[in-house]
């Protein structure tokens, strides 16, 4: 009887010793893991605070802004929003004009002639619906806002590369609306103020692009050509002003040029009039005023960028041919 009790006691002690041993190993493992994690976080913080980090997605931004991303400052990554970051390092714009200095009666906006373009800018690019956005999931950690405003600057870059001087509107449409006490439905009235002032400050302007994006489904706004995806283009022409015919002719001309490159690039020319639409779109301002919708809300900025490069070439060829005819 004593022998049996002793064996049970011995087995119990062995189990207890084994359990304590396992518990000790688990504690040691936890301590090691905690040490590794703490060391990693401390090292990362030291590197982040002390040295310039290269973004993992440098190729993505470099794709948009070409080689201008080669020298950036880490403090800008910490301090600036991504829109300001892209504009600063791609286009040399230190600060975006908020538009709050636009007066109700006589708007006074920033003179855009100091932008790095040709001496005599020809093309003015603006966005009546300035905050229309594209798919922005790729670099959310850097708060990149892929909007038609960014697309305007990309288009400007491509036109500049072809020798076409451009001015991109930097004033905020929202601030113009707020300053004048207008609701969103007056956006075209707000962009008209900026359009007229841009021309006043740059009388050599002769081609006016209101860049938008559509709200259609992804399958309607994307095409693939030779394994590369592009955002589809649609031209919108308002028919509710007496001088719409030259604007319509321009839209059809550009549309056919795109079709000659690839029919799938364009969704055609949309003629709009009647109740519920603007019907003018500021196209009564000049015969060379055009509204272009590039892609939709589900398109990626890479697809938009691919298309903008083609649009720039098409506009360049159009302007060159018309210059020869003068």
Question: How would you describe this structure in keywords?
Answer:
Aminopeptidase; alpha/beta; 10 helices; 2 domains; single chain; 326 residues; 6-stranded mixed β-sheet; two-stranded antiparallel sheet; elongated; disordered N terminus
User: How many domains is the backbone divided into?
Assistant: 2
Largest sheet, described in full? Answer: 6 strands, mixed
Strand segment tally: 8
In CATH, the topology of the largest domain is named: Aminopeptidase
Q: Which segments are poorly predicted (pLDDT under 50) over 5 or more consecutive residues?
A: 1-6, 51-62, 67-85, 88-117
The secondary structure category is: alpha/beta
Number of helices: 10
CATH superfamily of the largest domain: Zn-dependent exopeptidases
Strand content: 5-15%
In one word, what is the shape?
elongated
**Distance between the amino and carboxyl termini:** 120 Å
Helix content: 40-55%
Describe this structure in words.
- By secondary structure, this protein is α/β, with parallel strands linked by helices.
- The protein has two domains: 1-51; 58-325, Zn-dependent exopeptidases (Aminopeptidase, 3-Layer(aba) Sandwich).
- It contains ten helices and eight strands.
- The chain has a six-stranded mixed β-sheet, with helices on both faces. Strands 4-5 form a two-stranded antiparallel sheet.
- The relative contact order is 0.12.
- The model is unreliable at 1-6, 51-62, 67-85 and 88-117 (pLDDT under 50).
